[in-house]
Amino acid sequence: MSESNIDGIEISVSNDERRDRADAENSEDEPKHRRMRSLRKKALHASTKLTHSLKKRGKRKVDCRVPRIPIEDVRDAGEEQAVSSFREVLFARNLLPERHDDYHMMLRFLKARKFDVEKAAQMWDEMLQWRNEFGTDTILEDFEFHELEEVLQYYPQGYHGVDKDGRPVYIELLGKVEPNKLVQTTTVERYIKYHVQEFERAFREKFPACSIAAQKHIDTTTTILDVHGVGWKNFGKIARDLVRCMQKIDGDYYPETLHQMFIVNAGAGFKLIWSTIKGLLDPKTSSKIHVLGAKYQSRLLEAIDASQLPEFFGGLCTCSNQGGCLRSNKGPWSDPLIMKIVHSMESSALRDIVQVSDIEETITGSVRLRALKLPERISDTSNAESGSDVDDLGSPVAPEDVEYHSLAPVREEVNYCSLNSAIILISSIHVITCQLVAPIFR
Questions:
Q1: Higher per-residue pLDDT: 30 or 8
Q2: pLDDT one-digit tens code per residue, 36-92
Q3: Where are the domains of the chain?
Q4: Cβ neighbourhood burial of 300 (10 Å; 0-12, 13-18, 19+)
Q5: 313 exposed, middle or buried (CB, 10 Å; 0-12, 13-18, 19+)?
Q6: Could you tell me which CATH number the domain at 149-335+415-441 has?
Q7: DSSP string across 315-340
């Protein structure tokens, strides 16, 4: 392996790549059909070695000027063995499309079914069928939610910043939801499509961007639900139907994506119902949900830096130039330098991952993010970017008003609570509370 530096960007070239390049240069005088046969043979060999890691692309060789970026991925040895066995089952049943041949995705489905391989395989099969029928794989390109600005007026929500471990923070102001006005702006069907589209955007853009910024694997969120003012008007039939539909999608097709949830401004009625329901939940699930009253600010600041927390939650951020925090879409996914790397990656990037068992010390490994094809403005060396524009992509610099501090390696927690469980819990509390103790709740 050798390395060189062009325009301030580190490029590493393996011996195999050098041999391929030399072979290509030495073969210029050979007949065209012999050269093509040689190239096809090498392509087949590379495809066999990667085994589902990269998609087939064009034959044009592209100079992938992507820097070396360290991304920590802490794995439990027992879980690795479980995923390996699960992968073999899926592959044998022809249930493993290349785009979903992902360790962490398979692990989430295993966790959702308590590592019962048969139940997880059935869940996985149903997920693939749903994605095919719903058109999920292409929903980012095919669906345009043009009414978003109006929808946000009646359902204030969105991603804003990251927590102290680099996970995206998702916020909903449930007390300001107006279901009747919402359905005058959009339909339930279109909102569900938007909901699915945002999940896909999280996995294709937000989680990869956060992983690059934090330099460790991230695929879960920290959620804040503000229930101030929640009452009858927020949870009529329309809202219940919408929640029921979303909770099925979240639980069945996007399991285990919640790291922790903070429910703030919870009144006496809410806490009463929560104390009753909490005992019925799995302890690992309930431990991820924190029900807080009006004095919640210090708890949020323990998990989220003040620069990443909106002012209305006790933080320092206002996003005044972007129409407010819930309209700003603030986060590593808004950093153009980070997103250049994200968009240059294949859905399954070629990675060299240093793995850590749960009894070893955490080690930061070097993960090389590569792609077979990059946008011309990045891959074309004749149009190389200036050093000032792409300086040190391994530690991306965000726009002036956004800071993403370098994070020390932290052991990733093994168990996450299901987003489905949380949503079922919250919707149940809302409905029961509204029906039984609405005056107290208000």
A1: 30
A2: 555 555 544 444 444 344 333 333 333 334 456 788 998 999 999 999 999 999 999
A3: 2-69, 149-335+415-441
A4: buried
A5: buried
A6: 3.40.525.10
A7: SSB--GGGTSHHHH--SGGG-HHHHH
